[in-house]
User: What shape does this take?
Amino acid sequence: MKPGIAPMRLLMTADAVGGVWTYALDLAGALAPLGVTTALAVLGPPPAADQQAQAAAVPGLSLRQTGLPLDWLATKPEAVFAAGAALAALARAEGVDLLHLNSPALAAGQAGGFGCPVVATCHSCLATWWEAVRGGPLPADFTWRTALLRQGYAAADALTAPSHAFAEATARCYGLARPPAVVRNGRPPSRPAAPPAGAPARFALTAGRLWDAGKNLDTLDRAAARLSWPVLAAGPLRGPEGSEAAPRHVRPLGRLDATALSAWMGAAPVFVSLARYEPFGLAVLEAAQAGCALVLADIPSFRELWEGAALLVPATEAGRAAEALAHLLDDPAASARMGALARERARRYSADAMAAGMLGIIQPLLARSGPRREAAFA
Assistant: This one.
């Protein structure tokens, strides 16, 4: 434990569907040496066996599989309110010092009811997703969800976001007086992995929730049709709410566990993401840590994080994407140079830096939360 950091108990929410799972485990692992033990309240579908094994390897972390619904899959506001109330009861029962919500809508209707300070991290949301991917007025089903999220933001003691671009989009869409504080996501250093048997000599790779229209797999599929090199995609094609992707030219690898995905990245492919909406992009960071050259959509968050260390192309122009991919796939030396730039940039986004940034948010809240915490952060 580092000097000046008192032991504290944290209750954090997460789901096992997307990148929040990785974020939560990495943050808990980086906070553990600083004296923080974390109980992870899992909402939505239970973690797969490999995810549970990941969690078991994190020091000071224990799982609480709640069976509560994800706010973005709930069919009515009452389900979100009920989940928030159950979470408040869990926080009181656990006697935690702080609650970290990775689903901020759960704070709606619970202001002051958690018995401890609340930090909410804005990872993504329907309103900013709709603005970036569809445009125009929100559909009715999104309107009440957005209203709940606005209430949750107002009820939290502090808000964070993983990039300035997303913080500004959040403030704009929700009319916040000021943007959330920026604490960039981070990952521990990657371990070199042997490429999987049968991997192509040269290929492009993408990874993520392929069913999500914000990931823009359709444009990548059209770009793949123009290439002589294979384009592989790791991740689920069908989402929990029924969305489905059906690529014709991109080769799906299915859902890969962390070890398998690391092995594919270890083959040093060109990593590509043409996402139209990406508040941060953990898969991009993982690829950069592995030394992959990057071809990314020219959207505000990617420009902020990776400009100068990636080839940026218009998100919806398949021809431009194909040209950038072909340039790197046809020229191993150019690919190696871009991979080195990406790896160097990735050093900025470490798990330790993320934990330090989060402590900068947490410490003032705990110091104000009551006499029993005041001495901890003197």
Summary: Residues 371-378 have pLDDT under 50 and may be disordered. The CA atoms of residues 119 and 305 lie 24 Å apart. The chain is about 40% helix and 15% strand. The first helix runs from residue 19 to 31.
